[in-house]
Amino acid sequence: MPDFKPEWRAALVPVFLAAQFLAMRGVAGVERPPAPPPLACFPAEFGGWTVLREDPVAADMANELGADRLLSRTYVRTPAGSLASLFVAWFRTQRGGVRQPHSPKVCLPASGWTPEATGEIALDTTAGAIAVNRFVAVNRRQRAVVLYWYQTPRRAIASEWAAKLWLVADALRDRRTDTALVRVISWPGVGGDATATATAKEFARDLYPLLRGYVFAPRVRSSFSRSASASTQ
Fold first, then answer.
1. Which residue(s) pair with 72 in the sheet?
2. Of 57, 73, 121, 86, whose CA–CA distance to 206 is shortest?
């Protein structure tokens, strides 16, 4: 018997996009965007990790991303010398659907990187368990293990479609649509992809609780501030 699931999913895409558009229009007049987080002041040290260098984003790339705040730097963990690259793109509002996070699955191939393996993994953090995307990217002789997720005031989301779905629900409830793309990269060394994945996971586990509270503190008076104690990942 043929499987009609892909056809049904494809048929629902325009319906979902139309619903999202209408919901965003309904929120537009009452949205209360928060003040931008001071990402440049994000802690240089946490969980045994220390900033090794800042990695400025080129002006043309920053313009293409359209984010309101960017953070790009490399951390090192001593004494092991493990390296992890952190990139955060924060969008103050997604009203109108024009300015939204770009998936690394699109951006990295555009820079010459080819995804070799993709999937989702679970991370246990002190702020709760979250699911994140993992893929291995190759560029000639270079390899990189990439973890990324979409962060909102209430939750961390791996799936791009789920992020869009929760955007509508949370916008109606909290009157804010700020979202961040969080990306962590580690590079295989002697231990290969397994060691690089372990490094990226350790960094993300230490990063997540701190970043969530730092970027999504309720900097404006909103329904989120009244319900923060009941927030979920």
1. 87
2. 86
Residue whose structure tokens are 């705040």: 69
Mean predicted confidence (pLDDT) in 161-172: 79
Q: What is the DSSP letter of 81?
A: T
Task: Transcribe the chain into DSSP letters.
Answer: ----HHHHHHHHHHHHHHHHHHHHHHHHTT--PPPPP-GGGS-SEETTEEEEEE-PPPHHHHHHH--SEEEEEEEEETTTTEEEEEEEEEES--GGGSS-PPPHHHHHHHTT-EEEEEEEEEEEETTEEEEEEEEEEEETTEEEEEEEEEE-SS-EE--HHHHHHHHHHHHHHHS---EEEEEEEE---TTHHHHHHHHHHHHHHHHHHHHHHHHS---S-SHHHHHGGG---
Question: How high is the mean pLDDT of the chain?
Answer: 81
Only one residue has tokens 């090794």, namely 52
* Residue 231 counted as domain residue: no
Tokens of residue 3, six digits: 């499987």
pLDDT tens digits along 4-33? 344 444 555 555 555 555 555 555 557 788
Range of the domain at 58: 5-223
Least confident of 90-94, 127-131, 137-141, 167-171: 167-171
Please tell me the total count of domains within the chain: 1
Q: Is residue 232 part of a domain?
A: no
Within-domain flag for 131: yes
